[in-house]
Amino acid sequence: AAAGSTVELGCSAQGDPAPRVQWHKERGDLPWDRHEVDREHTLRLYAVMPTDAGTYVCTAQSQLGTAAATARLRV
Length: 75
Fold this sequence. Notes:
Layout: E1 7-9, E2 20-25, E3 35-37, E4 43-45, E5 54-62, E6 65-73
Antiparallel strand pairs: 1-4, 2-5, 3-4, 5-6
């Protein structure tokens, strides 16, 4: 991604009951005031910087278990 751009990372999780979905960065924190997660569990990172580069993990958890997927961001 180009520095200063907005990045969207999608995460699809379905089930009954609906799983609880969370995003985190593998080494570090999500940018405190430059991210949001919408109803479809898409993580948006605004005005990305080189320090935002890394691996992001989407975790879906329900009574039936846990599933995770990763995305690597390069800035």
